[in-house]
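Quick one, probably user error.
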């Protein structure tokens, strides 16, 4: 059976009401038939629901679908994507451990690695993600964990998943890959050997900007440790959000195909725009890792970036003339969203850190939605043209 079919047909067991769509299990706890059943379930001698901080039928259904899509043994869901990232690290690392991570990460991930984990004696070395020699040179005797995004947020830098998995196997390390931008429809890092695959389900797993969520999928032995940590610290996903996300997975194949189609067409249309320094998109031939993208990604994804001549002033002027795209720090919606990373999502990084990963004052991240792409092309072109004229008039 194809994954597209499984994503629609995997469902929690029907109740006596014979519902077609799975019901919402909005309950904080579950009952036992007798005290012995309660004892057996708590002792892991019998499977069963206990408390929605531990497990819930809606959450279990969502996790089962995600593990199927990511080709992994086990998984656990979280309230947010950042909770998923933090729990994966906190559960598997201890004082004295060392992490090697790519420099090109979401801003909050960098804050966890550089500001929060050091409080507990866990250190991190950041490297250029595309430089395999730099990864290996950074590995120390106490290195335990490798962490990366591919494609990265917002720079769309790629990690060679085959090469990094060979490296982690050589040194017996744990590799976690944030697969948020690609989704399991475009790439499955576990197939290359990744131990953990992490998502902010808030983004393309939901796909409509409605709910928050996160998920970690991976090897059973590692997920077991993350599950223990999470059950006792409480970053659990709500049953309602899980219900929404599980329903969203029924359309993720169709959505990602259309997102990718629109993004590629918009990237081509803007590639030679005189107001831009460059356009970057994994499936553009001009992307420096185009061949790698073709190797490990089925499509280019929904995200493109472009660098506007004139920096933030030009970005701000352009934003005043955009009529379709929303201006928001989020992504993963049916509606196109533009973001200025340097002043929002990555504003807490130093200027030097931003420069190292290509986040300039003129960089704009575009999460391309499902609107008619002809309308999007027209909107961006007219906004850039009006912004250019406005600034030229002001200077003149």
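Nope, works fine. Designed sequence:
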């Amino acid at each position: 059976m194809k994954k597209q079919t499984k994503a629609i047909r995997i469902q929690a067991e029907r109740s006596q009401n014979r519902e077609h769509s799975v019901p919402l299990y909005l309950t904080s706890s579950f009952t036992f038939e007798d005290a012995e059943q309660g004892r057996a379930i708590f002792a892991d001698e019998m499977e069963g629901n206990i408390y929605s901080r531990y497990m819930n039928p809606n959450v279990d259904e969502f996790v089962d679908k995600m593990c199927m899509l990511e080709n992994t043994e086990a998984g656990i869901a979280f309230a947010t994507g950042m909770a998923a990232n933090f729990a994966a690290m906190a559960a598997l690392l201890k004082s004295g451990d060392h992490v090697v991570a790519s420099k090109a990460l979401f801003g909050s991930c960098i804050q966890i690695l550089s500001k929060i984990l050091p409080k507990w004696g866990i250190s991190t070395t950041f490297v250029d993600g595309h430089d395999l020699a730099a990864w290996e040179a950074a590995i120390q005797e106490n290195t335990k964990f490798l962490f990366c995004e591919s494609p990265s947020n917002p720079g769309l830098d790629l990690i060679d998943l085959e090469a990094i998995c060979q490296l982690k196997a050589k040194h017996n390390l744990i590799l976690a890959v944030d697969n948020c931008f690609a989704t399991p429809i475009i790439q499955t890092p576990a197939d290359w050997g990744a131990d953990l695959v992490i998502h902010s389900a808030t983004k393309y797993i939901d796909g409509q900007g409605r709910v928050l969520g996160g998920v970690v999928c991976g090897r059973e032995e590692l997920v077991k440790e993350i599950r223990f940590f999470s059950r006792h610290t409480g970053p659990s996903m709500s049953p309602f959000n899980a219900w929404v996300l599980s329903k969203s997975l029924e359309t993720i194949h169709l959505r990602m195909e259309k997102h990718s189609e629109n993004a590629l067409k918009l990237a081509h249309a803007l590639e030679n725009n005189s107001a831009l320094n460059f356009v970057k998109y994994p499936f553009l031939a001009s992307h420096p890792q185009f061949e790698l993208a073709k190797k490990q990604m089925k499509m280019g994804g929904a995200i493109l970036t472009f660098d506007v001549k004139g920096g933030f002033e030009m970005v701000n002027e352009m934003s005043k003339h955009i009529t379709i795209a929303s201006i928001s720090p989020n992504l993963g919606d049916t509606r196109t969203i533009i973001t200025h990373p340097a002043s929002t999502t990555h504003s807490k990084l130093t200027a030097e850190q931003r420069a190292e990963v290509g986040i300039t004052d003129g960089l704009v991240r575009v999460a391309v939605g499902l609107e008619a792409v002809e309308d999007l092309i027209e909107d961006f072109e007219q906004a850039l043209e009006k912004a250019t004229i406005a600034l030229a008039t002001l200077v003149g």
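The mean pLDDT is 96.
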